[in-house]
């Protein structure tokens, strides 16, 4: 899986690269408009993370170019300019998703993976981890073929965990990624604690092989036993 | 009170008094002069009569029986010694007219050639004089009233014309609104003070407009510029947390850092949202059923804040149809409802009242808040709530201002009530 | 407002003062200046004063018009100097007439009487019983004649 990160801020670029490489993607980077165009012309990627404001040109022009070249790369726009017009324009020009800075890396992972699954499997977007299968489109999950009864919040959490297996996720990051900005940090702790507790219980009862582990003081991790 | 009325009233009162005093003074002076004229005439008569007597003492024996205009009376020496000339008003019976007529009388004394003192009494009719005095009085009174009316109406007209540039300037001020382009000031005037005022007003408006724009742009730019560094810092922390060999202590520190950073991110997002609202970057609007959005939002929030065990009730009186931007509608209701949950007591009440053109959100609370301050940015009524950005209600206010929604706060019957009143379509 | 009213009050008061005084008519000789009384006694030793009219002008300087019982009239200024002597149809006593004036009249109108003489800042002016008037300067030199 090859991913191109077009981002002029080098430390952000490196951070995204590191994070994606941990997920075993092949990551290449471009830090300005001309080099991004060059890379797009020369190689094929599975996914492109595109910053809109670039030295030497707009990320939107790259989108146009991709459309013109009839390339099928999935594109996620990453923009500091969290404006509705940019979002609409980007999606109109063929971008698949839009992520506003600053984002959680786990969120980025989830989005990238979701896009890639959709593209690869020709519509089958399910995630399979051990005996756990998550079907995002149907909003259901099963363990060993048997459906797991989850409420909305529990499903959202599980989907998020399943998108980031073996990654350590912060409590507040989990809360925010699943329920947006509406939750205040202080409240998110109790909330996540009780939700994760319920989810763990249900998974354990159904005999799931992946297990949500608490990392004391920081957050949780979905661990898949090999 | 309008300036024109104020100036006109003051001028009129001043003129009323001045002209009144002047008129009275004028009247009495004229009357005095008229009276004096009569007395002067009497003095002249006296000179003529006495002159005649001195020439021809035989006249002493006569008396005017026709007009009763004079009479002579010998005086004793004692009487003559301290005789004083006297003028006085009196009446005299006129046989031909069979009535009394007012007269002015002068009594004086002189030494006749026969070495005796005589008193000469002269009379002159004052009927015509009194008529004249009456006429003068009425003429003056009518003149006074007419003049006063003319002056009042005249000053009013003049003042009105004089203040036209001021009125135009004031009308222009009404059209100047912060955040909107300054309308052109078309206020031609020959009066240098007004011209100066025009210039100053226009310059000031442009300056404040510019400052306003710059401030808005600054906040937006600052928030934008902060996004990338914040993203980097947070991502790095996430990666760092996954490093090998971290102790629990390290993880706790990282968590604290992460959460602190989270607050900065949230603040920044709220600021960006505020400046976007103020910059009108949410243009497209459509008819929305705010009631159902409010109910959905409330359900979600109650879900999230389950631990606060809020007792929520909804009074749905009528569907609340309002035309506005959808995401702003969500932001508005979320902030309002979240405020009612987060700043509620644990286990407190929350009441959502939906009307045709109004929404009220009430939550338990005894102490009234400072209605002036709660909608200010970064104002926190409860300083212990460190997690709150202090921007939630400021965002609510900005959105209300944008759409002309009347936002009000009251504390009644143990509830904080925030109400939105929408303009009727 | 107070200021304006004060100014008005002063204005009213001064106007009243200026117009208030009537001429005084009296028979009391003692109100005449001493010089005037002496002038009368010297020139009209037999005459008696019928009445005196005292005119006061704006500046409060008086003018005394003295009428004698024989109808003659002598006017004095406030100092008691005579300014006009009107003897009706009789001759003005010689004491009032400067020598040059007398000489002029005797020379030019030998049969005529001076019935009235006025003394002013510009000189003398006389009226004669032939109806003619003559003006003289302060030194008594003849100036003009008119009827």
Please give a structural write-up.
The complex is a heterotrimer of chains A (226), B (425) and C (147). Chain A is α/β, with parallel strands linked by helices. Chain A folds into 2 domains: 2-120, Rossmann fold; 127-224, Orthogonal Bundle (Arc Repressor Mutant, subunit A), CATH 1.10.10.10. Helix content of chain A is 44%, strand content 25%. Chain A is built from 8 helices and 14 strands. Chain A has helices spanning 10-22, 33-42, 59-68, 84-92, 105-120, 152-163, 171-179, 185-205; strands at 2-6, 26-30, 47-51, 53-54, 57-58, 74-79, 97-100, 127-129, 132-135, 140-143, 146-147, 168-170, 210-215, 219-224. Chain B contains 9 helices and 11 strands. Chain B has a 5-stranded mixed β-sheet with strand order 6-8-9-11-10. In chain B, strands 1-4-3-2 form a 4-stranded antiparallel β-sheet. A two-stranded antiparallel sheet of chain B has the order 5-7. The longest helix of chain B has 53 residues, at 3-55. Chain B is rod-shaped. Chain C is of the alpha+beta class. Chain C contains 3 helices and 9 strands; from the N terminus they run αβαββββαββββ. Chain C has helices at 2-20, 34-43, 99-108, and strands at 24-26, 49-56, 62-68, 73-76, 82-86, 114-119, 124-128, 133-136, 142-146. The N and C termini of chain C lie far apart (60 Å). The chains are: A alpha/beta (226), B alpha+beta (425), C alpha+beta (147). Chains in contact: A-B, B-C. Chains A and B meet through helix 1, strand 12, helix 7 and helix 8 of A and helix 5, helix 6, helix 7 and helix 8 of B.
């Amino acid at each position: 899986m090859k991913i191109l990160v077009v981002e002029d801020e080098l430390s952000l670029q490196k951070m995204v690269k590191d994070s994606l490489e941990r997920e075993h993607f092949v990551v290449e980077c471009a830090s300005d408009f001309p080099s991004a165009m060059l890379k797009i012309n020369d190689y094929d990627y599975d996914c492109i993370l595109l910053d809109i404001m670039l030295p030497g040109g707009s990320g939107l022009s790259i989108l146009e170019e991709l459309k013109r070249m009839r390339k099928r790369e999935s594109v996620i726009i990453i923009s500091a300019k969290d404006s509705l017009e940019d979002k609409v324009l980007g999606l109109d020009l063929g971008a698949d998703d839009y992520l506003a800075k600053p984002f959680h890396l786990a969120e980025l992972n989830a989005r990238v993976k979701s896009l890639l699954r959709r593209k690869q499997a020709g519509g089958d977007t399910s995630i399979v981890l051990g005996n756990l299968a998550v079907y995002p489109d149907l909003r259901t999950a099963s363990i060993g073929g048997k459906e797991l009864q989850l409420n909305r919040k529990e499903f959202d959490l599980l989907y998020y965990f399943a998108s980031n297996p073996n990654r350590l996720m912060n409590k507040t990051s989990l809360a925010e990624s699943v329920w947006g900005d509406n939750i205040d940090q202080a409240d998110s702790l109790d909330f996540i604690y009780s939700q994760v507790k319920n989810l763990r219980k249900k998974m354990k009862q159904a005999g799931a092989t992946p297990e949500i582990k608490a990392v004391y003081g920081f957050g949780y991790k979905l661990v898949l036993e090999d | 009170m309008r300036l024109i009325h104020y100036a006109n009233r003051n001028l009129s009162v001043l003129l009323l008094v001045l002209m009144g005093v002047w008129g009275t003074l004028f009247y009495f002076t004229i009357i005095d002069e008229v009276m004096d004229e009569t007395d002067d005439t009497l003095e002249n008569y006296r000179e003529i009569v006495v002159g005649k007597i001195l020439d021809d003492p035989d006249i002493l024996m006569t008396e005017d029986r026709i007009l009763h205009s004079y009479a002579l009376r010998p005086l004793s020496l004692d009487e003559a010694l301290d005789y004083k000339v006297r003028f006085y008003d009196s009446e005299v019976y006129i046989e031909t007219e069979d009535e009394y007529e007012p007269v002015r009388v002068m009594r004086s004394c002189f030494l006749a050639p026969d070495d005796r003192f005589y008193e000469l009494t002269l009379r002159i009719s004052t009927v015509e004089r009194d008529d004249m005095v009456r006429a003068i009085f009425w003429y003056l009174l009518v003149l006074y009233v007419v003049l006063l009316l003319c002056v009042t109406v005249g000053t009013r007209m003049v003042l009105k014309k004089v203040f036209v540039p001021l009125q135009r300037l004031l009308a222009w001020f009404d059209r100047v609104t912060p955040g909107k382009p300054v309308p052109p000031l078309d206020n031609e005037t020959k009066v240098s003070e007004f011209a100066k005022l025009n210039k100053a007003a226009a310059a000031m408006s442009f300056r404040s407009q510019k400052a306003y724009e710059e401030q808005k742009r600054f906040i937006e730019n600052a928030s934008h510029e902060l996004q990338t560094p914040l993203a980097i810092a947070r991502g790095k922390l996430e990666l760092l947390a996954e490093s090998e060999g971290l102790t629990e202590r390290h993880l706790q520190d990282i968590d604290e850092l992460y959460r602190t950073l989270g607050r900065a991110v949230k603040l920044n997002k709220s600021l960006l949202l505020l400046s976007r609202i103020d910059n009108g970057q949410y243009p497209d609007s459509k008819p929305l059923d705010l009631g159902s959005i409010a109910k959905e939002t409330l359900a979600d929030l109650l879900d999230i804040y389950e631990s606060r065990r809020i007792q929520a009730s909804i009074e749905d009186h009528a569907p609340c149809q309002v035309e506005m931007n959808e995401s702003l509608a969500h932001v508005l209701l979320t902030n309002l409802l979240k405020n009612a949950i987060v700043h509620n007591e644990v286990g407190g009440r929350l009441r959502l009242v939906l009307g045709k053109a109004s929404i009220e959100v009430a939550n338990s609370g005894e102490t009234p808040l400072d209605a002036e301050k709660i909608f200010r940015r970064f104002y926190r009524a409860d300083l212990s709530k460190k997690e709150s950005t202090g921007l939630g209600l400021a965002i609510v206010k900005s959105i209300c201002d944008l759409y002309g929604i009347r936002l009000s706060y009251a504390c009644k019957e143990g509830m904080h009530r925030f109400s939105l009143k929408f303009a009727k379509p | 407002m107070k200021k304006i009213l004060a100014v008005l009050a002063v204005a009213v008061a001064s106007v009243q003062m200026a117009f208030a005084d009537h001429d005084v008519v009296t028979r009391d000789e003692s109100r005449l200046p001493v010089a005037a009384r002496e002038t009368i006694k010297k020139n009209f030793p037999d005459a008696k004063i019928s009445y005196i009219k005292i005119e006061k002008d704006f500046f409060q300087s008086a003018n005394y018009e003295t009428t004698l019982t024989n109808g003659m009239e002598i006017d004095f200024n406030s100092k008691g100097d005579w300014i006009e002597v009107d003897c009706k149809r009789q001759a003005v006593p010689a004491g009032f007439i400067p020598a040059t004036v007398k000489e002029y009249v005797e020379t030019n109108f030998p049969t005529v009487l001076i019935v009235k003489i006025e003394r002013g800042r510009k000189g003398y002016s006389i009226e004669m019983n032939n109806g003619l008037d003559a003006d003289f300067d302060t030194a008594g030199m003849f100036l003009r004649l008119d009827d």
